[in-house]
Amino acid sequence: MPDTMTSDAFVAFDRVQKSYDGETLVVKDLNLDMPKGEFLTMLGPSGSGKTTCLMMLAGFETATHGEIRLDGREINNIPPHKRGIGMVFQNYALFPHMTVNENLAFPLEVRGLDKAEREAKVRRALEMVQMGDFGNRRPAQLSGGQQQRVALARALVFEPELVLMDEPLGALDKQLREHMQFEIKRISDDLGITVVYVTHDQTEALTMSDRVAVFEDGRIQQLAPPEDLYERPDNSFVAQFIGENNKLSGKVKARNGEIATVELPGGGSTNALAVNCGDVGTETLVSIRPERVDVASEGENATDARVLELIYLGDHIRCRLDVHGNDEFVVKVPNSAGHEHLTVGEMTRISWAAEDARALDPL
Predict the structure, then answer these.
(1) First and final CA of the chain: distance in angstroms?
(2) Of 240, 222, 279, residue with least CA distance to 363
(3) Please, which residues bridge with residue 250 across strands?
(4) 2-52, pLDDT tens digit by residue?
């Protein structure tokens, strides 16, 4: 992972490490910076280190090594309540005995604001999340989606420059979760706040983020805008974790500039971009997105494939094929592209462009 530090970062992790037992590092030598106003998502599977990074930034965990800075000031030893950071959790963390208004007023009372100013800020925050008529209700009288809106309003009510969100939509149903993704992004853009968002949901990360940091094994595997992560993954982990992906194992047969020729099992070869593969003779994994494969085609890198399954999904047909011994090779055929010529059990020809295939590190 290249060093991403810059001198004008609003949030900065400088060689940060974290261990709970003094031996095993759950965060390994993390260098990361964020400009003011960015929406950055920390994405990764459970145990990858993303939530630990968020908790260190919030002040609920202490870095074992390294420095965390906020707006140029080191905050390693500053307690959470003095960092001026808004927090939104998956379980909402609302006070059940307080009304919505009282929940939002609480962080303002702690900061010593007078009653009139508190009421004005609470009213503005609730309007922002479209909950202006619910101020006198208690959390138990609200739906899950409404409670999450209140939790978001409480995080924003004291106008923090940085808001941290830990799996905030995990408890919501699919439709409401998708709606709230756009709402949170809209509000953050309107206010110009900086957001660090933690999720294991790749679709959520791609939808909401300016940049995504993909975590695995305590390290950032790739830090990039959503389009770059999907179209140009740096390694096999990112290619498999972000979106749907086909993989073909093989050996590097030749290298010619940016192109590697990869020998595939059972004979045949394919040309692919030599992104993260070794020299001739080494193992590699060729990554190809399902929508980049042409069916019934004799184009570049054409090869035989047996049709194993056809699933009608409205706008496209999902075809599962056996390609060079991989029986989980998936192609998405647009509904208008002559899928009626495909029959389960029969052979067809498929092809893909070399620039749409990436020779990566073997898994």
Answers:
(1) 18
(2) 240
(3) 284
(4) 444 445 799 999 999 999 998 899 999 999 999 999 999 999 999 999 999
